[in-house]
């Protein structure tokens, strides 16, 4: 087990001291004060940053001008902070470096790397922060401005070869399996990852994965069939659940939420 890769869990902070986390582009500080937690966060826009570290200090570094500061008053003394990795609260839209077509009768796998969100909680379940490890821009996914939804734009290309997407301690890989049983090809210019509906897993190599997304083309003018599965690439693979999906709902809610994933 790589303790640095598995950066989540409980951290005990003594009175009058602070915990400092570096999680790739994100820096968090949690200061334990009498009847108060003071949290601060700042994030760089460099997706290649991958350092993971945690330290305790009696004198945290001064806050910079780009730091967000939050104060939480308590009626008691909560001495621990719990960090939890989650997938984004909106879908992620990724594009291949060049559009491609899936030929009739063929099935292909597409891979997308998604930055994680970090949730900071108290032991009683109270949420202090829920924020992205990497700031993302917004984009619209839909045929018109009235038919579609607001999403985040991925900072990495969707790729056919998973080896071209490096594993990162605060990012998760999603495998999208696109099946085209019809005779005519289907063009993939961009793909939407329904991130809030996916669970998060870790494999034996400490690589983070979302549930795999399966898209099967049904007809030219019909919605595709969509379902999710545990992210195993081979029968011998073994994964461990890290966190559940943000959204839990029945099949009808899921189908309405993810009726179109390919554009």
Give the DSSP E fraction (strand runs of 2 or more residues): over 45%
- Helix/strand class: mainly beta
Overall body shape: elongated
Average pLDDT: 86
**Biggest sheet: strand arrangement:** 5-2-3-4-6
Catalogue the unreliable spans.
250-257
- What's the gyration radius in Å? 20 Å
Order of helices and strands: EEEEEEEEEEEEEEEEEEEEEEH
Taken together, the total number of domains comes to 2
Strand segment tally: 22
Number of alpha- plus pi-helical segments: 1
Explain what you see.
There is one protein chain. It contains one helix and 22 strands. The two termini are 39 Å apart. The protein folds into two domains: 9-85, no CATH class; 89-115 and 136-257, no CATH class. The protein has 263 residues and is an all-beta fold. The radius of gyration is 20 Å and the shape is elongated. Helices cover 3% and strands 45% of the residues.
Furnish the topology, listing elements before pairings.
Layout: E1 9-12, E2 18-23, E3 26-33, E4 36-43, E5 52-57, E6 68-73, E7 80-86, E8 92-94, E9 100-102, E10 106-115, E11 117-121, E12 127-132, E13 138-141, E14 149-153, E15 171-180, E16 186-188, E17 191-193, E18 200-203, E19 208-210, E20 212-216, E21 225-229, E22 239-243, H1 251-257
Parallel strand pairs: 8-14, 15-20
Antiparallel strand pairs: 1-7, 2-3, 2-5, 3-4, 4-6, 7-11, 8-17, 9-16, 10-15, 11-12, 13-14, 18-19, 18-22, 20-21
């Amino acid at each position: 087990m790589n303790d640095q890769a598995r950066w989540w869990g409980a951290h005990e902070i003594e009175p009058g001291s602070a915990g400092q986390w570096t999680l790739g582009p994100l820096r968090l500080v949690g200061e334990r004060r009498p009847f108060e937690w003071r949290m601060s966060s700042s994030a760089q826009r460099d997706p290649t940053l991958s350092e993971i570290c945690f330290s305790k200090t009696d004198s945290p570094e001064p806050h910079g001008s780009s730091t967000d500061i939050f104060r939480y008053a308590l009626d008691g003394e909560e001495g621990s902070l719990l960090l939890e990795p989650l997938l984004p609260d909106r879908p992620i839209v990724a594009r291949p470096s060049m559009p491609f077509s899936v030929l009739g009768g063929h099935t292909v796998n597409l891979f997308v790397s998604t930055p994680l969100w970090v949730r900071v909680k108290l032991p009683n379940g109270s949420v202090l922060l829920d924020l992205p490890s990497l700031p993302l821009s917004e984009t619209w996914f839909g045929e018109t401005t009235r038919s579609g939804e607001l999403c985040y734009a991925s900072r990495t290309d969707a790729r056919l070869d998973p080896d071209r997407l490096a594993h990162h301690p605060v990012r998760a890989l999603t495998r999208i399996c696109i099946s085209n049983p019809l005779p005519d090809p289907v063009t993939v210019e961009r793909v939407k990852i329904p991130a809030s509906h996916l669970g998060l897993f870790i494999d034996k190599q400490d690589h983070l994965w979302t549930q795999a997304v399966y898209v099967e083309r049904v007809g030219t003018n019909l919605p595709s069939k969509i379902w999710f599965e545990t992210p195993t690439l081979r029968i011998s693979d073994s994964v461990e659940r890290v966190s559940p999906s943000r959204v839990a709902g029945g099949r009808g809610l899921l189908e309405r939420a993810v009726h179109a994933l390919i554009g």
